[in-house]
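Q: Structure for this?
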Amino acid sequence: MKEYKIAALAGDGIGPEVMQEAIRVLRAVEKAFGLPFAITEAPVGWAGIDAAGKALPDATLALCKASDSILFGSVGLPDRDPTIPKEERPERAALLRIRKEFGLFANLRPVQLPKALSHACPLRPERQGDGIDVLVVRELTGGMYFGQPKKTETLSEGVQRAIDTMVYTTPEIERIAHVAFRAARLRRKKVTSIDKANVLENGILWREVVTRIGKQYPDVALEHMFVDNGAMQLMLRPTQFDVMLCENMFGDILSDEAAALAGSLGMLPSASLGTTSGEQTFGFYEPAGGTAPDIAGKNLANPIAQILSTSLLLRYSFGQNEAAAAIDRAVAEVIASGLRTGDIYSPADATARKVGTLEMGTAIAAAIRR
Ligand code: NAD
């Protein structure tokens, strides 16, 4: 059987603590499902600067290139050496470099709110239905953030003009639409495509292309929604959504709005996907949160975002859906059993028991079953 090569880059702050638990869970999956994982750890971020003088050391980049996917922690420590220029700081030198190097064009952010964590959600319980479960699929390399011209010019004395350009080509929309429809097939088979077709040329093209690609997925229901309404509906009735397909800027905003529904950054994984070859897609998997310096090294961090990142990795890069489902199930079981890290703990819940990073990870690993 083919070995799955995973580069594990823990990074800074809580990165190493939560990564350790994610690897523990992967080892349990390896055993239960007989999947051979070759997991190699390497430094990145300030850990990379300390080890090799660079946020993304050459050896770490070489490891990533030789791997099938990257499991990433988080990088950046705001209090470390302010004299290091922005381009060399971990957030840019490591994260942006990896995104570019591997052509990661699709960002997937699942937001799940289990019933047991209802208290952590800012919405009233009656708006939460049987639990919220939305996947935001965001285009990551086009649109307003990258379109040219992009500049600020002086028109006359004291009058300046800033220009950003929203540009999408048909192939860019096609490839992200395929990602969304394929993801929907693994879920509840519904795509809500977000645009602003009533105002933007980009919106009209987006809607046309998504509709055309949707015909190749007759088993997936497709609806279109204007972005302003989408933002409102996420607050009013989030349970109506399965997959939300968004261009870059709309996805940036809506994925954070959706994230707020889960109550804690510690619960939110994310995937950034590149090209597919054969049955595998190169992907970069990380928690949505950062290095949480305020709680680092204290066994307080919630490892679930990092653990759910491994589930995304198995599902979207390796097509190992059963193993991925086993991780999701184990997380749900452990939460239902009452274990809580501080970020999701509520003293009002009599069945809840506060635990540390290590105990949470160990419990989830022990709950992995085929
Ligand atoms: P943060 O996400 O690190 O922390 C925000 C809050 O959420 C903190 O109170 C933190 O304790 C909490 N939190 C985050 N993850 C948690 C977890 N797993 N369990 C429990 N609580 C958790 O954001 P920040 O403080 O703005 O940033 C800190 C550093 O992380 C900065 O240097 C920033 O640039 C970096 N950062 C990196 C990434 C990345 O590597 N992709 C993403 C975001 C921020």
